[in-house]
Write a structure and sequence with these properties.
- Helices cover 42% and strands 16% of the residues.
- By secondary structure, it is of the alpha/beta class.
- The strands form three sheets. It has a six-stranded parallel beta sheet.
């Protein structure tokens, strides 16, 4: 029977560490870390995520700078907003909530965010450094960073282990594979064009599932004792629920927990860690900015 990795509890302990860091930073430099969260339009899911991020900021003492723009805002105006935030010394992190409306070039907007404030870790320079041996990015994307933190804080060793990442998105699959390589795992990526994924996944000591397919990975795909981090969040019909649906991961949890050594639940596994890592990146950005400013003085 697997040890259930409690993402909520681990995230809560990280929140406590961050709150202490915010207090220390304020005492030492008289500065409060500031996170600008930019949302365009009125997508319900995006608004929910943004509300959660702003609430988390308040809980640890990070100043949340709220920028709410209409769905028909021009690309030029959004770009100007980002450049203004780049120049604002009270802002140490800039997060543009994705997806953006179709008339806006997402890559153009994300590339305009100052690398020193790119708390999402998606700037091409940050991803490029993540991919290079001996280079360190200023920020690492939040969900991949959270996956690694869950493994490390649960006592799962990564070095010399065989890891399989299921999914190759820019947001999770690719960066988490690069992080695992940096930590000396031997990494294989499984994606939609991979033949016989079961045979590859069943050899893994560590599985990071981020394919976006409900219950894709079955219990008999998992090597006994493997660590399973399930990033998937999929809605499946459930007439017994008031909402009419429930959330499940990419891993069939019930049967997999009988085989794995460690496993994250959905919800309550990776989700809370993504926001915890966003807060951590913001505080790290504020520390770096304060240290640089004190050198200049």
């Amino acid at each position: 029977m697997a040890k259930i990795i409690d993402g909520k509890a681990i995230a809560q302990s990280i929140h406590s560490e961050i709150a202490q860091d915010v207090t220390d930073l304020s005492k030492k430099y008289g500065k409060v870390p500031g996170l600008a969260v930019v949302i365009v339009g009125e997508r319900k899911d995006s608004q929910t995520y943004v509300r959660m991020k702003r609430k988390a900021c308040a809980e640890v003492g990070i100043k949340s700078i709220n920028v709410d723009l209409p769905g028909d805002v021009s690309e030029e105006n959004l770009l100007d907003t980002v450049l203004d935030l780049n120049a604002n010394s009270e802002v140490h992190g800039i997060l543009v909530q994705l997806p953006l409306p179709r008339h806006i070039n997402e890559e153009k907007i994300l590339s305009a965010i100052s690398i020193e404030k790119d708390v999402d870790g998606f700037h091409p320079l940050n991803i490029g450094k993540l991919a290079m041996k001996g280079r360190e990015p200023l920020f690492v994307p939040c969900t991949p960073k959270g996956c690694i933190e869950l493994l490390q804080r649960s006592g799962v060793s990564i070095s010399n282990k065989r890891a399989v990442v299921v999914g190759r998105s820019n947001i999770v699959g690719l960066p988490v594979a690069l992080l695992l390589i940096k930590l000396d795992a031997t990494v294989t990526m499984v994606h939609s064009k991979t033949p016989d994924p079961k045979s590859i996944i069943s050899e893994a000591d560590i599985i990071i599932a981020a394919a976006g397919q409900a219950n894709m990975i079955k219990g008999d795909w998992i090597k006994p004792g493997a660590a399973v981090i399930d990033v998937g969040t999929n809605a499946v019909d459930d007439p017994s629920r008031k909402s009419g649906y429930r959330l499940v991961g990419d891993v069939a949890f019930g049967e997999s927990k009988e085989v794995a050594g460690w496993i994250t639940p959905v919800p309550g596994g990776v989700g809370p860690m993504t926001i915890a890592m966003l807060l951590r990146n913001t505080v790290d950005g504020a520390k770096r900015a304060c240290e640089e400013a004190s050198k200049v003085e």
